[in-house]
Amino acid sequence: MKDNRREFIKKSVLGAAGLSIAGNALSSNAFMGANDTVNVLSVGVRSRGQALLSTLSELKNVNIHTICDVDSRVLDERTEQVSSRQKKKPKKLKDFRKALENKDIDAVVISSPDFTHTPFAIYAMQAGKHVYVEKPVSHNLNEGFLLVEAQKRYNKLIQIGNQQRSAPTTIQAVKEIREGIIGEPIMAKCWYANNRESIGIGKKVDVPDWLDWDLYQGPAPRREFKDNIVHYNWHWFRHWGTGEVCNNALHELDVCRYAMGVDLPLKVSSKGGRYHHQDDWEFFDTQEAVYTYENQKTIQWEGFSCNSLNQYGRGRGSLIYGTKGSVLLTRNGAEYYDLGGKLINENKEKAYSSTTDLVGAGALEVYHMQNFMDAIRNGSTLNSGVEDINYTNAMCHLANIAQTLDTELEVDQKTGKIVNNAEAMESWGREYEPGWELGL
Predict the structure, then answer these.
(1) HEC string of 230-258?
(2) From CA 372, how far away is CA 355, in angstroms rounded?
(3) Residue 12: what pLDDT?
(4) What distances in angstroms separate CA 215 from CA 48, 64, 82, 94, one per listed residue?
(5) Lowest-pLDDT range, 195-204, 256-265, 267-276, 347-356?
(6) Is 51 left (phi over 0), alpha (psi -120 to 50) or beta?
(7) Quick one: the chain helix, strand, coil %, rounded to 5?
(8) Cβ neighbours of residue 349 under 8 Å, at least 6 residues apart?
(9) Is the pLDDT confidence value at 9 over 80?
C-alpha cells in the first residue's frame, strides 16, 4: 500500500494544472530546499488526525517530530504507531502550546475540534510555523477573516484541508469549465447524505482519567463535562461545533464556488430543521442552503445527516450546470453531460478516496499534503490557501445563521458582514476563555 501511494504522488499533477487562485503566497523567498526534511507537529490525532498521520508517514522527507492530544490513550497509541513507520520516535505532549516552543518544528498539522482551528493556527504562526488546518477554517465568521489577516501579518503558509482542491480530475474539469466546455456556468448544486444516529441526552459525569477536560476546552468558555460530547459529538453543539454544513458542505460548496468562479454571495437563505431524533443535537439534520450571486447565478447545498438516500448514485457530489452542458464532480472523478443528459465523457481518478465515512482518507489527501510540503520547500502555490477558502467557510457559517433566524441574509461581498440584520451580526464572533484570547 505504501509503495502504491508514493507512486500516486509521483504520477499525479499535484495541483499544477495552472489554476492558482487558491494559494496564499509568501512575500519572502525564505523557502527550504527541495530535499530538506520538514519537521511536523500534529495536534489532535484521534480520527481524522490518525488519517493525516498516516499520510505524513507516506511522504518523503517528512518527520513527525511531535504529537499532541488531550486524550492520553490516543496520544500513547499514535506515538507507537508513528514510531513503527519512521526512524525517529516522535515526542508526545498534551499541550501543543508547549510544543510550539521547539524551534526545530517547521509546520503544524491541526485536526483538533472546530473551535480550536483558528486559535491554534494563529498560535502556530506566531511561533514561526507553517500551518495545515482541517476544515472548517473557523468556529465563526470573525475567526475566518481574522485568520486571513494573521496569515498576511505573520507571512506563513496556511493550507486548508479540503482535499478535493488537489484532485487532478477536479482541477482539469475546472480548467475546462473556464475554457467554456459547458458554456457559461449558471447554477451549481451539491449534496451530502448520511444516516447518523442519535447522540442522546447527555448526563453530567466525572471526567474520564484519560482526558484533560480543561485543556480540551481550550479557547471555549468552560462547561461541565457530559458523557455525549467527547469525542465526535462535539460537532453538533454550538459551543464547540459548527454543524453539518461546516463539517461536510464546505467540501462540495468549495468545488461549486471554484468551478463557478465566484467568491462571497450577495444573499444567503437556508431552510430545514432537526427532525429525526429528540436529543441534544443543536444544529440541523436537514438543510437546504441557497446562495445568490450577480446575474441570478446560484449555488445550492442539500444536507441530509439522517437520511442516506444517494443522489445521482452518490452520497456526496457537486453538479455544475452550464448553458451548453453540465459536469458532475466528485472526489473520484468527473462526468460530462450534454443538455440532453447524455454522458459524453468521463475522467476517473487513478486512485480511490473515501467519501462519507468519518475519516475521509485516500489518494487526494496524499496529493493535498504533498502540495503543502512542496509549498514549504520551494514556494509552490497552495491548492487551498486560507484567503480563498475562507469565502467558502463564510458561506457555511452564513447558512447556519440564516436558518437559525429563519431569514434571508444580505452580505457585504468584501467583508463578509451581514448588512440587513443586526441580530444576525451578533453571531459574528464569540467569547473566549481568559488566557486564550486571539490577539494579533
Answers:
(1) CCHHHHHCCCCCCHHHHHHHHHHHHHHHH
(2) 22
(3) 38
(4) 19, 22, 24, 8
(5) 347-356
(6) alpha
(7) 35, 20, 45
(8) 167, 168, 169, 331, 332, 333, 363, 364
(9) no
